Amino acid sequence: MRIDGIAVGDIVKASIGGRVVYGEVIEIREGVVHFTPISTNPGWRHASAHQIVAHWRRAGRRRPAGDDDGITQPHEQLALRVFT
User: Fold this and answer.
1) What is the model's pLDDT at position 17?
2) Which residues contact 83 (CB under 8 A, 6 or more apart)?
3) How far apart are CA 2 and CA 52, in angstroms?
4) Burial of 80 from C-beta contacts in 10 A (0-12 / 13-18 / 19+)
5) Closest listed residue to residue 21, CA positions, set 6, 5, 8, 38
6) Do residues 8 and 27 make contact, with C-beta atoms less than 8 angstroms apart?
7) Rg, Å, the chain Cα set
8) Mean pLDDT split into 10-residue runs, the chain, 84 residues
9) Is the distance from CB of 24 to CB of 34 less than 8 angstroms?
10) Which residues contact 79 (CB under 8 A, 6 or more apart)?
11) Closest Cα to residue 17, out of 56, 39, 48?
12) Residue 22's pLDDT is what?
């Protein structure tokens, strides 16, 4: 598989040594994809291009880092009315 379309944050499926590993990409360097496994059991943290079997792109709009106050909710939605 070509790793040109893989970006940081995407999910990859790699077949390494006859085992299948799913992981979230943290870095792509020198033709090797470094990832954090979704399951903590596998010991593999990187895969070459020919070991990558599938790739899922992270969809949706990405927020800039540190922009937590960009979304504001109306006061009526945040208010909790409890009738007793």
Assistant:
1) 87
2) none
3) 9
4) exposed
5) 38
6) yes
7) 19
8) 88 92 94 90 87 88 60 67 64
9) no
10) none
11) 48
12) 94
pLDDT at 10: 93
* pLDDT for position 2: 84
Residue with tokens 């010991």: 43
User: Is 83 exposed, middle or buried (CB count within 10 Å of its CB: 0-12, 13-18, 19+)?
Assistant: exposed
Q: What share of the chain is helix, strand, coil (3-state, %, to 5)?
A: 10, 35, 55
Tokens at residue 58, please? 């992270």
Q: What does DSSP say about strands 11-16 and 52-56: parallel, antiparallel, or unpaired? A: antiparallel
Residue 63 is predicted with a pLDDT of: 60
